[in-house]
Every structure is written in structure tokens, then in C-alpha cells.
Design a protein that fits this description.
Elements: H1 2-15, E1 22-24, E2 40-43, E3 47-50, H2 60-76, H3 84-110, E4 117-120, E5 125-130, E6 133-138, E7 144-146, E8 149-153, E9 157-161, E10 164-170, E11 173-181, H4 190-205, H5 222-233, H6 240-248, H7 254-286, H8 292-297, H9 307-313
Antiparallel strand pairs: 1-7, 2-3, 3-4, 4-5, 5-6, 6-10, 7-10, 8-9, 10-11
């Protein structure tokens, strides 16, 4: 952990931000109540996965090709009833378009995906894997911070950005440290990011299940948590009631609401195909992305030793002591 602490100290001094950074701690509350913010990809009794945000564009190319294939077939379909050659031309063109869509779908599903950020309650560690590089940090000594900034441009107007970052070190290479963003910073304030950190802190310290005020729950609310994430990630929606309410509240005029509904309906095939692509891409990635050391520590009966302890046993952290497996804190 010394390399992480040294990295953070050097970063603060080098950039002159020591007085502007808001340092977060696993042992101190960051907000009055936790907030999920939609990044929770999976949450169980033993681990919580955060979507890293790098996969936001996943599935969009498949959606565009699929939408193009569907609309091209519909536009050209009257030719089918004119003559045999016309019908052959339409079906050949459609077959080519749907074939390209299928190829793009397979590429996006099988293309290596960025792994989520995993918080393991059993061993109280944080993991992130970038291809064959595994990064980790003990939760009890986590170094995280945020810094709120406001930019104004002629194109976007005023925009608030508050990166929330966590330092991890590479397994077996303690000198290699990365600053990992826990979510997208655009539009976030220090208050909302603090609520997000409090959600993670409640999971690790009070979880795995807790209410909107951070108080522990006896039963699981896993489905409620995941439903919130799915609603956040699902792009193919036609929420007519939402637009009706905007008109009633005077936010939209009826004509503007109709235009927005027509636009959503037009792009629905693209977003529907995109959602399907993302679903299968994540299912495939979930079974292939984690190092065996992480997988076994996320099992209910897996080892309770931390990756940090394994490094200490190998002499990678001078002066540090190995914590016995039986002394490792159990999930609360």
C-alpha cells in the first residue's frame, strides 16, 4: 500500500491540488444518505460490480445496421409484388444487410469488454482487470478522492464535472499504480458523488443490503437494486406517460412532445437491437473476464486472504505483515 500512498501524495503536490481535493475514506461518512446512481451492474452478498463506463457505446453499431436493414426492407418491400426479379433483388439486398448486422453483432459480443470494478466484501478488497493486468487495493486502506470543477463553453454552457477516483496497484507489480474513475463525471456534483461513495461504503461496512438511508436490512433487495440499473441502461423505451406529464406540467408543448415521441419511435429498432447486443456481450464477458484469484475469492467458500497478503508473503511489500486468513474480517 505504500506505493499507492506515495503516488497520491506526489500527485497532490505536483498538481498543486492539496487544498482542493476532497479525500474520501472507507471509515468516514461521505454524505447523509447513499445513492446508487445506476452504475451497479451486479450486487450479491459477497461482491458488488460497478460498470466502468467504458462500454457506453457497446451495441450502437449493431443497432444502426439493424435499423438500416429493417427500414430498407420496408421501403423496398412494394417491389416484391411487381415481378420475380424485383423480389429477388429485395431479398438479396435484405440478406446482405442482415448478414452485415449479424457480423457486427458477433464482433461487438465477442470483442473484449472492459471489466467492471468489483468490491469484494469477503476479503474486503477492490479489483479491476485490464486484459491480463489485475489491479487491486485493500478496502480498509483505500485512497479515493474527488475534485469538483465547472467549465463554461459556447456550445454546452455551464457544465459541472466531479471525477471520483480510486487508486489501485497492479498485482505482483506494486510500483504500477492507476487512478480509476468509478463513474462518468459529467453532470455530477461533489454532493452526488459523495452519495455514490456512501453507497459503496454502506455496502462494504453495513451491507450487503440496506435502505435508502443506509440502514441495514435483514432481507435482500437485490432485485430492486438490479432493476434500477436495468432501467438506467435500457435505451429502447417509449414512455408515453412521461411525455404526457411533461405537457401537463407545461415543460413541453403538445407539438414538441409529439415530435419527441415520433423520434423515439423511429429510433426504437436501433436501441432495441443495441439493448440485446449489450445483454449478450455482458453475459459472455462475465464468464471470461476475471483472474482465477478473483473468482475463487468471490465464491462463498473461497479463500479469505487478500491479494495484498499474497504479495506480502512473496516479499513485495517490505515491512508489511501478512494478516492470517482466520483474522480477516468476515462480511457483516
Amino acid at each position: 500500500m505504500q506505493s499507492i500512498k506515495t503516488y497520491f501524495a506526489d500527485l497532490s503536490q505536483r498538481l498543486g491540488l492539496a487544498d482542493e481535493l476532497i479525500v474520501l475514506s472507507p471509515k468516514r461518512r461521505a454524505a447523509k444518505q447513499p445513492m446508487q446512481l445506476g452504475e451497479v451492474q451486479d450486487q450479491t452478498e459477497h461482491y458488488l460490480d460497478l460498470s466502468s463506463g467504458a462500454e457506453e457505446g457497446k451495441g450502437i453499431f449493431t443497432g444502426v445496421w439493424g435499423m438500416g436493414a429493417i427500414y430498407m426492407f420496408l421501403i423496398m418491400s412494394p417491389v416484391i409484388f411487381q415481378d420475380w426479379e424485383g423480389a429477388l433483388y429485395v431479398f438479396t439486398t435484405a440478406a446482405i444487410m442482415f448478414g452485415i448486422t449479424s457480423v457486427v453483432f458477433l464482433l461487438e459480443v465477442f470483442w473484449p469488454s472492459s471489466s467492471p470494478i468489483r468490491f469484494n466484501r469477503r476479503t474486503r478488497e477492490v479489483y479491476f482487470q485490464d486484459k491480463d493486468k489485475l489491479y487491486h487495493a485493500p478496502w480498509d486502506e483505500a485512497v479515493a478522492w474527488m475534485q469538483e470543477s465547472r467549465t463554461v463553453t459556447q456550445y454546452t454552457g455551464a457544465m459541472t464535472e466531479t471525477p471520483l477516483q480510486l487508486l489501485l496497484q497492479r498485482y505482483g507489480h506494486a510500483e504500477e499504480v492507476i487512478a480509476l474513475r468509478l463513474n462518468l463525471p459529467m453532470g455530477r456534483t461533489a454532493e452526488t458523488q459523495g452519495m455514490f461513495w456512501e453507497y459503496l461504503r454502506c455496502y462494504m461496512e453495513k451491507g450487503p443490503w440496506f435502505d435508502e438511508n443506509g440502514q441495514p436490512l435483514a432481507g435482500s433487495n437485490r432485485e430492486e437494486v438490479l432493476d434500477g440499473y436495468r432501467r438506467q441502461q435500457q435505451k429502447a423505451t417509449l414512455d408515453l406517460e412521461h411525455y404526457r406529464k411533461l405537457v401537463q406540467d407545461g415543460i413541453f408543448t403538445p407539438s414538441r412532445a409529439r415530435v419527441r415521441i415520433l423520434g423515439a419511435a423511429f429510433f426504437y429498432p436501433c436501441l432495441f437491437i443495441r439493448d440485446i447486443t449489450v445483454k449478450y456481450a455482458r453475459q459472455r464477458a462475465a464468464s471470461n473476464q476475471w483472474h482465477p484469484l478473483v473468482k475463487e475469492r468471490c465464491r462463498p467458500d473461497g479463500p479469505t486472504t487478500r491479494l495484498y497478503d499474497l504479495e506480502v508473503a512473496e516479499g513485495l511489500h517490505e515491512g508489511a505483515e501478512v494478516s492470517a486468513a482466520e483474522q480477516a474480517p468476515a462480511p457483516r
